[in-house]
Recover the amino acids of this structure.
């Protein structure tokens, strides 16, 4: 089901699914190192090396923390193909920090090979098991920051990072209170959010896509939204606002980001 109406939302209870408690945050905060000030304009860069639950992690990324003292919701931001946490993810995280969020981003396997060298778990592009482990560990690492309010976490991604976001929600549906993506969706190939994972999503999900996108077909987003609708998952699909937008143009669009902010507010992530 494709909706072209501004703010068209399906707000229904997820039928037949019992709500599960979020998984505990599993991180060895003594293994987290960062350089710079998370409250500064450019945030801080971090690395994490630990074996958690028998899985070896060697990760890097950025984190942005609001300057004022207090407790804030968290968000995991996921970059696209050829990107990194130091480019796209930092730009989005900086905006979300301004909303009053602790925003964290990690490196995925679809970053340039030289940038991803040495990162673990081993992964392939997009919605691979290794990338989902990396994304979920970034969620866990939020707990190492005193400013983080552990009761609320969101997820947002673009392109390959949108594929990660959808797969993450389907793998850990209880761990996120709201989510959003640009230029992603469901397909049967190796990189996109997998249909079986999409069937498990229960998180309120806002989807943004352009019909003019020649990188990720809008059919991928349509398929995701159809699954959400069939499962009566609360969702919000925006297309009409992005007439003529390219794949890259939608990624940092101010109007899109404002819609995301309102979505997080509507679903209790933001006050």
């Amino acid at each position: 089901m494709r909706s072209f109406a501004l703010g068209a939302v399906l707000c229904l209870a997820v039928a037949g699914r019992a709500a599960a408690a979020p998984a505990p945050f599993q991180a060895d905060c003594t293994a987290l190192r960062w350089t710079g000030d998370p409250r500064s304009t450019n945030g801080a860069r971090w690395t994490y090396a630990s074996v958690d639950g028998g899985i070896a992690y060697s990760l890097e990324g950025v984190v942005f923390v609001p300057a004022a003292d207090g407790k804030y919701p968290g968000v995991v931001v996921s970059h696209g193909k050829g990107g990194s946490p130091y480019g796209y993810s930092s730009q989005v995280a900086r905006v979300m920090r301004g909303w009053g969020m602790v925003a964290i981003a990690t490196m995925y396997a679809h970053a340039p090979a030289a940038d991803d060298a040495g990162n673990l778990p081993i992964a392939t592009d997009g919605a691979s098991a290794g990338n989902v482990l990396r994304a979920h560990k970034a969620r866990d690492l939020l707990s190492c920051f005193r400013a983080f309010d552990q009761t609320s976490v969101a997820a947002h991604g673009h392109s390959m990072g949108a594929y990660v976001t959808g797969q993450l929600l389907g793998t850990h549906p209880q761990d996120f209170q709201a989510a959003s993506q640009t230029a992603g969706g469901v397909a049967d190939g190796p990189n996109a959010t997998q249909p079986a994972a999409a069937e498990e999503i229960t998180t309120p999900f806002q989807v943004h896509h352009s019909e003019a996108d020649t990188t990720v077909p809008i059919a991928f987003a349509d398929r995701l939204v159809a699954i959400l609708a069939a499962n009566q998952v609360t969702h919000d699909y925006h297309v009409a606002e992005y007439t003529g937008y390219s794949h890259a143009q939608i990624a940092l669009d101010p109007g899109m980001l404002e819609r995301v902010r309102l979505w997080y507010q509507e679903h209790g992530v933001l006050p």
Observations:
- Residues 202 and 233 are 6 Å apart (CA to CA).
- The longest strand covers residues 148-158.
- The chain has one domain: 9-16+29-266.
